[in-house]
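User: Okay, second chain of the day. Same drill as before: sequence in, structure tokens out.
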Amino acid sequence: MKISIVGAGNMGSAIAQELVDNDDVELIRICDARTSALDELQNSLNHSKVRTVNVDARNKRALTAVLGDSDCIIGCTAPEVNPLLASIAVASGSHYVDLGSSPAIVKEEKKLAPQARDSGVWIVPGCGLDPGLVHILCYAAINHLDEAESANIWVGDVPRDPVPPFNFRIGWSAEKLLDDYTDAAIVIENGELVSKSPLTGLETLSFGNGYSKMEGFYTAGDLETLWNLSGQKVKNMSHKSVRWPGHAEQMAFLLSLGFGEKKSIDAQTHLTYRDVLARRLKQRLGGPFEDVVLARSSATGLLNGKKTTASYELVDTFQDENGVSAIQRCTGIPAATIAVLLASGKIKKGGVSSPECIIPIPTFLDMVQKRGLDIVFTSS
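Assistant: Same drill. Structure tokens below.
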């Protein structure tokens, strides 16, 4: 199979590394406008199946020519480019996956559903950690029960050794972080969709192994798809981010001053307050760091007539021996796995769907665990 990756950044490189180790993948094509990023990735992978192409992700004509023979295309560049990449995939008869974006961008991808069905290909947004892995695990937990009453997702990427005063670092997009902290958090309460203010609903969480006093709070996340998939029978459902204590209060303070607003600072510049905050977050909290991913997806309800909680938990840490971050692994492994399942032709029909709706979950879980994600299941 031939798989193409658009974007040679941290996540694109992590996915490429996963694919290199897969014997069924004969060609990995990596596209980016940055020659230096491509050279660095080519040198680090140092494998005969890897090909790099210097092309801009917004150049539809050039990309179409390059990607035409792909069995699956993986979008790892700016989220606003995802609809363009999805349209190229459909036109070329390729499956398409990406790492997720805002509801507005996903809505644009969904417009391609009729063409995707006619072409027999899948467009699958949100195939990384969140959205992606944690939603798949939550659906698996729901399905373990005879009748699920509630379901919850907690997930976060945090520094392994927090440094005051922030005790936080950014391992992904600062812009996406601000979207999560400013867009409404939609939860299900008593069988109804309810909007919650992000950074609220604070609770203390324990993951053990030195992470026994973390905080969880509401952030934006797509629960409606998961709720609909469960037949809207789950009465309560929530999505919360996990951080070291104090983070929610710090961010709420900054945002209350207006630094999350998409309003120009003054008439002399196009910069918004949000632009400035994103830049400063990158400058002060960006860069490489040793991280840990903490994730738990659970469902509570009835199993054989007894009240039961089914839970999938993941604690994945930075790999000292090869310098691979936890967020790279926990994003790259699920995305690469879903791309391989699609490219193999094992998932029939076509259209636009979240991964939990179409992938064979037992097969998926077996594959990601074999790649080293230590996902622990409990039912009690």
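The mean pLDDT is 94.

User: Thanks, on to the next one.
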